Each structure stands twice: as structure tokens, then as C-alpha cells.
Amino acid sequence: MAGEQGVLPVADAAQVRRYARTLFRRHPRGLAAVLGLHALAAITGLAAPRLLGELVERVSAGTTTVTVDRVALAIGGFVLAQAVLIRFAHFASARLGERVLAELREEFVERILALPLSTVERAGTGDLLTRTTRDVATLSRSVRFAVPETLIAIVTAILVVGAILLTSPMLLLPGLVSVPLFWFATRWYLRRAGPGYLAESAAYADITDGISETVEGSRSTEALGQQRRRRARTDTDIGRSYAAERYTMWLRTVFFPLAEVGYVLPVVVTLLCGGWFYLQGWVSLGEVTAVTLYVQQLMDPIDRLLSWLDEVQVGGASLARLLGVSSGSPASEEGPGPSGGEGRAPSVRSVSAGRVRVAPRVGRPGCAVLLPGGAGRAARGDPGPAAG
């Protein structure tokens, strides 16, 4: 969408999603390698709860120590294999994230250099400086960590749910008791988090813009006696930033406690329902053990998904601000040229001046410069006669 007067535009949600899909389509092999390695790691991690459930069944029915030792060694082997796969999977994720981040930075630099000078001057240095520093750094963290971790959590959660279905479909419903809580809490949070983080970034840009203008124009501020006005501007910007950050913090204080309740509830309900199902003879003790461990294992990807969801929202707001740099129409920003063409700078060959008073220091009278026929002298660099 277009930005307000004097502010660089911000891309809308459709533009951000379209650009994200474009990034994924650029790296199909890298994305497939990342998802494949993490899927293999997740599948390897599913072996331990199943083996432990079978071990409980055998011990309850009576078995030998040799069998117990074999199962323990098998569990240890799967855990070791999972650690190795996770190591290579994280390496592939980091390599893909760095490649995508490098492309984002190069494209952003191209967008900045393509901006007309008039657009940059109207927006001010603060907004552009914030986008090139804070927003780029925030997006860097999201691309390197948040996006890969989110994809990994989704794949792992799907595989764990599949393992529960294969072990005992009857025990799946108790493990999904927190799904409605997660659904409504996440929808409530996402509707408010995006606009909230955009407002937070805009308020931070206002602070940077005001401080940079005050520093750069400190002599003019002192000469014109505008210190109080500049302090009032800074206080107002800080107040807006405080209110924006307090709003997003309030969103987190509501969302995360609900999520924490959702982590504990499925394990407790699965254990209680599984015990009752076992007493009724509907499931075995090994199935109850395995599914309870699977449900507990399911909480880890859900926790990572919801924890990084906040970082994804912050990164999405930063990406919208970076994409918005080029969402305007640079060709029309400069206005018509002298021959009616769009985007051409006017051709200036002469400058005329009447009486000009220059005061190099505050408190000293300036000198008046009279330039009769100053157009020709200014063009040739001739200062002309001076008086004063």
C-alpha cells in the first residue's frame, strides 16, 4: 500500500506472501534437502517411544535381561542417528538461509538505489536508515532461524501425529485436546500482531528520523531557538514507540500463557484416558506408554512453532517495509521534465539572485551581495560586486 506523505510505502500482506513464495521457488533443491533431512531426523526420533512401549509390554509379560539390553542398545542407536541427522539438517538450513538472505540484501540495495532523490528527501533519513539497519537485521534473524525452525516444527508435528495414528488411533483424540485452544489463541494473536509490529517499526523510524534531524541541524536549532520544540518532538516519538511496544508485549502476555496451558493439558488427558482405556481392555499398556511419549514429544515442535511464530511476525513486518521501498512509482516521483517527459530532472543552466545576506556566525551581521545580471555571473562562477 502507499505510504503517507513524507513516509516510504509499506507492502501489503499479499505482496509479502507472493514474494515469500517466489523465494521458495528459487531454491527447490535446497528446500527439499532441508525438509528431507529434518524429516529423516524426526522419523528416527519416533523409534524410541515405540521401542520403549514394546519393552514395557515384554517386561509385564516376562522377558530376559538380554532382550532388555538389546532394546536399550537399539534406542541408543536411534538417538545417536537422530543427533547426526539433526546436525546435517541444521547445517543445510543455515546454508539455505544465508543464501536467501544474501539475495534479499542485494535486491534491497537495488531498490534503494532506484529511488528518486525527491522520494528520499521527502521521507527523511530516519525511515530509510531504520529500514537499512534495524529491519534488515530483524529480517536476517527471521530468515536464518525463524523460518527454518517453523518449517521443521510443522514437518515434525505431522510425523508425530502419523506415528500416534499407527500406534493407537483411539488415543489420538485425547492428545489433540488442546487444538481448539491453540486455534483460537493463534487466530486472535495473528490478527493483531502484524499491524502491531508494523506500528512498532514505524514508531522506531520516527525516533531515528527526529534524532538524526536534531543532530544534523543542531546549529540551526540553536540559532533559531528551537530546542524546546525538538525536545518535545523527541518526547512524543518516544511516547509513541513505548505505546507500540507495550501493545505488542500485551499480545505476548496473553498468547504465551494460553500456549503454556496447551502444552501440559494433552499429556495429562492422554495419560488419564489411556489408563481408563487400558482398564476397559481397549488398548494395551505398551500402546498407552508409546502414545503418551509421542504426545509429550509432539509438544516440542508445537512449542517451537508458537515460539518462533512471534519472530516470524516481526520478520514479516520488516519484509513488508523493505519491499515497500519499491512499491511506489519512481518514474512519476520527479514530475514532468522541461519537455513534458516523466522522471526527467529540469535542465538548469543559470541561477539569478537579488540581495543575499550571509551570516557565518550567530550574532554577527552578514554581508549583502548584489548581483546585477547575476544569471551570467553565476553561470560563469563570477561572484560580481559585493557590498557590506
Automatic annotation (TrEMBL):
Transmembrane segments: 31-51, 71-89, 145-165, 254-279
Region feature Disordered, mapped onto this chain: 326-352
Record-linked SUPFAM superfamilies: ABC transporter transmembrane region (SSF90123)
Chain ranges of the ABC transmembrane type-1 domain: 32-313
Topology relative to the membrane: Multi-pass membrane protein
Low complexity composition bias: residue spans: 326-336
Major subcellular location class: membrane
Pfam families reported for this sequence: ABC_membrane (PF00664)
Alphabetical UniProt keywords: ATP-binding, Membrane, Nucleotide-binding, Transmembrane, Transmembrane helix
Coiled-coil ranges (or none): none
PROSITE patterns linked to this entry: ABC_TM1F
Superkingdom, taxonomy of origin: Bacteria
Subcellular location per the Swiss-Prot or TrEMBL entry: Cell membrane
GO molecular function, one term: ATP binding
Protein name: ABC transporter ATP-binding protein
Species whose genome carries this gene: Plantactinospora sonchi
